[in-house]
Amino acid sequence: MPDRMRDGVSMYKWNAKDYHKSSAEQQKWARELILKLALKGNERVLDIGCGDGKVTAEIAEKLPDGSVLGIDNSIEMISFAWDNFSIYPNLAFQLVDARNMNFISEFDVVFSTTALHWVIDHLPVLRGIKRSLKPGGRVLLQMAGKGNAAEILEVLETIVYSKKWHGYFTDFAFPWAFYGKDEYNVWPKDVALKAKRVELVPKDMIQKGKEGLSGWIRATWLPYIQRVPEGRRDEFIGEIVERYIENYPPDNEGFIHVQMIRLEVEI
């Protein structure tokens, strides 16, 4: 498996523009999560794994007397976020690895969505969160959880280990960490935090036909896609899409459904 980080910077080359276009479902889930924060409007908020910045910008809109900092370890994402959302005076972005946060008693709220499953060891992240919180501060995290994307992962495994594609995946190891209640009922205590709620939440990822599904795969399944030479990626993605809809056909309106599991942690 190739290193996913170098000096705290993502080794995957994100196409932030593609992600921005193909992450509407993630944005919808983030909006639902933001509502759970019940922000008063004067808080200082940290958004861990801010990606392209659009969710961080929505948080900024809810903070007329506050501010939000979005951090991410992707240079491409942070550049895109600055280019597209710098009009918000109460919003900033920094290139920071979530495992190496050095904020001290700065934030009223720490928030993260669709990001922390990219991190294998969560204890450094939780220690950083603990240090970053003001007294009485709150934490709300959502990430891919135990059992996430089982159906599409089954399809991927079949394709990856086929004779046609296996040569590109000889030293491949599963790139994400899908944790559950067992881990998050313990880990916050290890860093002197107290989890108020730890919940696995089923989500229906809806994509608009083959084009929507292929766009989502291209934009977000980088550990698989970037193993394949660029000239063969369309073929690889097309095979994933065809195999998936063969097993899980679109609904009557042509929408394709991918069953996801999110782990929500409230501290």
UniProtKB/TrEMBL annotation:
Residues 40-145 form the Methyltransferase domain. CDD domains: AdoMet_MTases (cd02440). GO terms for biological process: methylation. It comes from the Archaea. One of its GO terms (molecular function) is trans-aconitate 2-methyltransferase activity. Keywords: Methyltransferase, Transferase. Pfam families: Methyltransf_31. The keyword Oxidoreductase does not apply. PANTHER family: TRANS-ACONITATE 2-METHYLTRANSFERASE, TRANS-ACONITATE 2-METHYLTRANSFERASE-RELATED. This is Methyltransferase type 11. The lineage of its organism: Archaea, Methanobacteriati, Methanobacteriota, Stenosarchaea group, Methanomicrobia.
